[in-house]
Amino acid sequence: MNFENVIAVRKNKKIYRDGDKCIKVFDENYSKADVLNEALNQARIEETGLNIPKILEVTMIEGKWAIVTEYIEGKTLAQLMEENEEKKEVYLSLLVDLQLEVHSKKSPLLNKLKDKMNRKISASSLDATTRYELHTRLEGMPKHTKVCHGDFNPSNIIITEDGTPYILDWSHATQGNASADAARTYLLFWLSGDTDGAKKYLELFCKQSNTAMQYVQKWMPIVAASQSVKGNEEERELLLSWVDVVDYE
Length: 249
Fold this sequence. Notes:
By secondary structure, the protein is α+β, with helices and mostly antiparallel strands. It contains 9 helices and 10 strands. The strands form 3 sheets. Strands 1-2-3-5-4 form a 5-stranded antiparallel sheet, covered by helices on one side. It has a 3-stranded antiparallel sheet with strand order 6-8-9. Helix 4 runs antiparallel to helix 5 (about 130-140) and helix 6 packs antiparallel against helix 7 (about 195-210). The termini are far apart. About 35% of the residues are buried.
C-alpha cells in the first residue's frame, strides 16, 4: 500500500489515497472496538442501498488498525459551497434531500440513538439535576428506527464529476429519530461559525420533511449535551451553552 498521498488528517487518524482505494489509519491507542464498530456500521449501511464507498477490508498496518474502502473521486459539498457561494441554498437543499434519503432507510442491527445519547449524557460534565432532566426529556421523545448518520454535514458528501452524490463517514451511525440527526447537523453548522447556514439548513429541513421546527429545537439541548463529551474545550463550552437554551414547549 502507498502511504505518500495523505488526503486528510483528523484527530486520532490519517486518511490516504492509494489509487482507487482510500485507507483510514487509526492511531495505535485507538479503540479496536470502535474501529470494528465503524466498519460494521458501514457494512450495514451498504446493505440499505445508499450511495456510499464500499468497505474492502479491515486490516493492521504497522501495528495500527486500518479500514480500506473505495476511493470516490470528486468534490465535497463543502468545497462546492465555498466555490459557488451564490448556489449555497441549492446545495443546502441537496444536503437535506440526501439526509431525508438516509432517514428513509432501516437497518435494524445498528445501535440505538437513544441508548448512545443516554450513555453520553451520563458521561457529560453536567450536574446531576441537569443530567436527570435531559434523561427524562430524552425518554419522553418519540421512539423511531430511522437510519441516522450522526455527523451529516457538507464535508461528508462527495459529488462525483457526473453529479452522483456519495455519503462518507458512518462511524456515528445509529437508528433513531430523524429530528435528532437534523439537530446535530444544525449544531455542526453553528459550531463551524456558519450561523446563517445553520438557520437556512433548519428551515429547508423542516420544509422538505414537513417537520415542525419546534420539534427539532426540542432535541437541541439533548443533542448538545451528548455531543459535549467529545471535542475541544471551546466547542464543549459552546455546546453546553445550548443545554440551557429556552425550553421550546
